[in-house]
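The instructor's notes for this session suggest beginning with a concrete chain rather than abstract definitions. Hand out the sequence below and ask the class to guess, before any prediction is shown, which regions might be ordered.
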Amino acid sequence: MAPQLAWLGLGNMGRGMVKNIVEKGELSSPLIIFNRTTQRAIDLQAKLPEGKSTVAKTIDDAVTKSDIIFTCLGDDAAITDTIATAVQCDVKGKLFVDCSTVHPDTTNTLSKTIEAQGAQFVACPVFGAPAMAESGNLVCVLAGPASLVEKVKPYCKGVMGRANIDFSDQSPGRATLLKVIGNTFILNMVESLAEGHTVAEKSGLGNKNLHQFIETMFPGPYAAYSGRLTTGDYYKREEPLFGVDLARKDAGHALSLASACGSRMRAVEVADGHLADIQKHMGSKGDIAGIYGAVRQESGLKFENGE
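After discussion, reveal the predicted structure:
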């Protein structure tokens, strides 16, 4: 019989990952879902196949009834608080799998906290945007004891994701270390696109011409983000795809890690400055793609294009 699964945290990423576990994962009983705001869990349940999920109203309720507990929270404080609450009940023999993007020190501390209560832990941060979570095309990074990683893999490649990066028998913090460093590539990509499109507009080349080049030379994430910039999606969305507050959290972790090992990430420093500008202009509704608006502003253009 397949283990009983629970999922804690239904943000932009969590909702898509839950959808794929429910639709493609091997489950012997309904997936237990929990969110701090219960209504979000109820709304998601209504969109999932009937009888494939059940809503827990408390963390204790979800954890007590489950064998494997997936977590996906927005920041270090949220996942730390969630795990602190979870381990107050009897968790001996249970396996916790954290998909949050947090500092590697936080991941390693979570591992120790969980193991001290007789439970087990695997880190499983993921690469990919919410659309990739929805379509099951994430890249899952797994770290922890090999025997435990093997228990998690059936829910990764082919279910939540298109590929695994396997760090079996490595410290759980190695997975989130890769995730934090990897996210700087995304941040720097958006910064590069924002600067390129701004210069293309001001120099007379034009955004359409530059976008054609990007689609031809760099299909995939570059072209997708370029499209978000040129269409104004970076400021028109009601809910950000990659919120500016979370992006700054990731950038802060990266800069901290670099400083701790005697290095600098100058490109990240520049991009983080633009993220701060987005926060001033849009508050928590800002998106990482809003770097384009920040670069436009410092170049003498309006934050919003097409206006």
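Then share the key points. The mean pLDDT is 97. The longest strand covers residues 161-168.
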